[in-house]
Amino acid sequence: MAFVATEHLTGISAPQCGPGNNDCNSTPVLTLLPRQHYQPDLPSPHALCIRMTLAADRRQTQTAFELNIDIRAVIRALFRTATSQPLSLLPPIVIRFPSFAFEDAWIFALCVAAVRSGASFVHCAPAASASAAPAAATAAAQVVCPDGTRVGHAECCPFVPLAQDLQKNLFENECGEDAHEVFRLTFHDAITISQKSPSAGGGADGSFLLFPDQEPNFPGNEGTDDSVQALLPFLQRHNVTAGDLIQFAGAVAIGNCPGAPRLEFLAGRPNAKRLPARNLIPLPSDSVDRILSRFADAGNFSPFEVVSLLASHSIARADHVDPKIQAAPFDSTPFTFDTQVYLEVLLHGTGFPGSKNNSGEVKSPLPLGNLAINGGKGNDTGEMRLQSDFAISRDPRTACFWQGFVNQQTFMANSFKAAMSKLAVLGNDRAKLVDCSDVVPKPVTTRVKPASFPATKSSKDLELVCASPFPSLSIDAGPRETLIPHCPDGSQNCP
User: Fold this and answer.
1) Which of 128, 312, 421, 445 has its CA 20 to 30 A from that of 304?
2) Higher pLDDT, 123 or 284
3) Between β-strands 143-144 and 150-151, what pairing exists: parallel, antiparallel or unpaired?
4) pTM confidence score
5) What amino acid positions are annotated as catalytic residues?
6) Does an H or E element contain 31, and which?
7) Does residue 314 have a known ligand-binding role?
8) 203 is in an annotated binding site
9) Would you tell me how many other CB atoms lie within 10 Å of the CB of residue 402?
């Protein structure tokens, strides 16, 4: 089987095997075709096939060679190595590269094709540029905190009791509404920065907690007042800065959601000195052009990184897009960090969970809640689809990145973690921060089920722009539309 990345695609097209290509009859083959405007230095100007033999010994995964270089060098080095000896004899290949490399589809195509072909020796790990690594990198735990916890740096000790306090008195170790709202605040605090207007804001500086009566009222910040008020007591009880509190609390919060990665946390953000400018928050009613431009202005985020950050919508619910309904989820698994949101946003819309004609909302594929189905019993709300998610999933610049995450849990989680590492330090000098990632609680280990079509939905409901092959997915059982749980425990009734 061959996966082909053509000159017009940013993903993988339908499998192809050329006449006389005997490799296609026995082992998966990855074929990359150079785009018209990009001619990599390869032996063939048209295509190059690589035999992708499965790794014979999965225990070899402890060894790898890393390619932390540019796109062309990655491809040349990988192809050169692959042709020097059978891939089955190679140690696992870890492809690490600056996350902006995904701006070009080559590595994206390579990684997704490798994963889908079952090539266990390839691990795709987008990461921040090597030059962006903090000077005070994670060290072996050598400092003993007052409670006896060993950490890498003394500056990390205050976050040990903070994590315990947050889990006990706010999150209750659940991926619930408080966790959702606090994690949302990490984005709203960090994105308030502009390269075009350096005085517009300080990025991840805790301004929300230092100006709690003003910033939550800015456009796009509707609903952030709840998380701000929830975090203020923790700021008073613990010796940490406001910016550190917001990002650390977000890392603790998302760790309660099955499927989420353990986020990086760097400590040492100075407190905000002023309010940021208004209108720096992307809105669900914004065009894709405007959203991509805002992210690029804030921190040179690529379209791929924007799509990666939107994985947060897998655990998001809206209270203010439609003022008539509360806690409207963006996918059918709002308490699990999974790829379901990338699937369901691609489905044909049939209605609205509440009222019509709301700014920033389009028809959803699962609009029904139990108020409509179960005679008014329960407080489940049907699924809401944001106009911005709908548009990004169908825009030629981002559609294949969006589709490429469907049922690729590890790839999605790694990509999200890399993009969050960049977002969480906007406005700060990484070299002056201290890596305290070791004090972020380990995420819950509950198994995440593969993506699946909700009951009554199937591949016939897909609205695809990207020509890459779509994964084969199961369909949830049931004669009627899937009801989305309102509570973390899966029930339909909770406070």
Assistant:
1) 445
2) 284
3) antiparallel
4) 0.76
5) 188
6) strand 29-32
7) yes
8) yes
9) 27
